[in-house]
Automatic annotation (TrEMBL):
Classification via CDD domains: MFS_MefA_like
SUPFAM superfamilies: MFS general substrate transporter
InterPro entries, A to Z: MFS, MFS_trans_sf
Source organism: Streptomyces rameus
Keywords annotated in UniProt: Cell membrane, Membrane, Transmembrane, Transmembrane helix
Main location as per UniProt: membrane
The organism's taxonomic lineage, starting at the top: Bacteria, Bacillati, Actinomycetota, Actinomycetes, Kitasatosporales
Top-level taxonomic group: Bacteria
Pfam families: MFS_1
Regions that span the bilayer: 20-42, 54-72, 232-256, 262-283, 295-313, 319-337, 385-403
Compartments, as annotated in UniProt: Cell membrane
Name of the protein described by the UniProt record: MFS transporter
Length: 421
């Protein structure tokens, strides 16, 4: 039940190599949040795009990126992960730098923004699948939750400080400048990952010489065959999709009908990120005391209870406090849940399947989020934003039914195949 808990102590050292990886992750995460919303701002302010084009930039870019990334999971699986991570960082850096270059030449188009968003989304999925596999080879099982909690706390820290700094930079220098910063963060991340050094185990050999069509589904087959991963997979895809689908409607409601200012809207979502930082720091002690499975189910259930409250807030200070309070509770529970679920997923996935499994997971999450965002956009137009937000909240109440309520035995790791000189 609590495998991966023993030996966890406050301030546990994870080594120099993890330190470089952690620093690279924090650098790229900060760059991403500094450039938060930059593509949409460029589309609106520079290219004078309308609402339909801006919506397409977010939804279509993510969906097409997920589709492009489908064959990348099997491709990543049979390669050393550190070079793949470096390559994906450099791909994102170069793709982003084409935007300021085209802007300087007066040649920037909406199609280029869309294509860059697709490339970045696909490279992001490949990077995530490679980094998860690399982390599992870098650290022993008992340290995975410690590492996951530190990465999660870093993610929430950059969420708190990134958007305000990025907003100030955008106001002074324009949104294209934050894209340059984001590109530079990926370059620094690549240098940090390269600096981790050390020996990486040789990956398993591909059973066939060429990638076959059936190989593209290996990640999904593995997930659906596992009694714990299967419900967790559906739970996270549906939860993330419904939460994200309601966000554009919430922006319309707050910034439109209810008359909140942009800084109030930003505050309502930036300040509660402190809850994610606190939750991620509590994840490890909670697992130590109560066990991984119990914390996974309880925190996964509690995070589903908050969003329905977003259908009932009104204008003024009271409404702002209600939104902030709901987001604080939601994000705190997510801060506990996320590192525990990420650790559980790594522990339950054998080393020779991690990249394919994480890739399939990320592709499904991005695709379901894009689909549900589009559906909720239609529902918002038909039913009104408040009703559509409330419907998403009600459906979220059912997501705990998809949590794994019993911990199944772990699969044995495969025997390493002999390598002949």
């Amino acid at each position: 039940m609590s495998r991966g808990v023993s030996g966890m102590r406050s301030g546990q050292r994870l080594g120099r190599r993890f330190g470089w990886l952690w620093g690279a992750y924090g650098t790229s995460a900060l760059g991403t949040w500094l450039a938060f919303g930059a593509f949409e701002l460029i589309a609106i302010r520079v290219l004078h795009a309308g609402p339909a084009e801006v919506a397409a930039l977010s939804a279509v870019g993510a969906a097409m990126g997920a589709a492009v990334a489908v064959p990348l999971g099997p491709w990543v699986e049979f390669r050393r992960k550190r070079p793949v991570m470096v390559a994906m960082d450099l791909v994102r850096c170069v793709a982003l730098l084409t935007i300021p270059a085209a802007f300087a030449l007066g040649a920037l188009t909406f199609l280029q923004l869309l294509l860059v968003s697709v490339v970045v989304a696909a490279a992001d999925i490949a990077f995530r699948s490679a980094s998860g596999a690399y982390l599992k080879t870098l650290l022993p099982a008992e340290q995975l939750l410690v590492a996951g909690a530190r990465l999660e706390s870093t993610a929430w820290t950059t969420t708190i400080i990134g958007p305000p700094l990025g907003g100030a930079a955008t106001g002074l220098l324009g949104p294209v400048a934050t894209v340059v910063v984001d590109a530079a963060s990926y370059l620094l991340s690549a240098l940090g990952i390269r600096a981790t050094g050390g020996h990486e185990p040789r990956p398993a050999r591909r059973p066939a010489a060429r990638l076959r069509a059936g190989d593209l589904l290996d990640g999904w087959r593995y997930i659906l065959a596992d009694a714990t991963l299967r419900p967790l997979f559906f739970n996270t895809a549906l939860f993330n999709g419904l939460v994200m689908a309601a966000q554009p409607l919430l922006a319309v409601l707050m910034l439109g009908r209810l008359g909140f200012t942009p800084w109030q809207y930003g505050l309502a979502f930036a300040a509660p990120s402190i809850g994610g930082l606190l939750g991620s720091r509590l994840a490890r002690p909670l697992v130590t005391r109560f066990g991984q499975h119990r914390v996974l189910v309880v925190s996964g259930t509690l995070r589903a209870l908050w969003s329905v409250g977003l259908a009932f807030f009104g204008p003024g200070t009271t409404g702002l406090l209600l939104v902030t309070g709901v987001e604080l509770g939601l994000i705190f529970c997510c801060g506990v849940f996320n590192p525990v679920y990420a650790t559980c997923r790594l522990e339950r996935t054998t080393t020779d399947r991690v990249a394919r499994t994480l890739s399939a997971w990320a592709v499904t999450t991005k695709a379901s989020t894009a689909l549900l965002t589009a559906v909720w956009g239609v529902l918002g137009a038909l039913l009104g934003p408040r009703t559509a937000i409330g419907l998403a909240g009600v459906l979220l109440l059912a997501t705990p039914l998809l949590l794994p309520h019993r911990a199944a035995p772990l699969r044995p790791e495969p025997e390493p195949a002999p390598h002949h000189a």
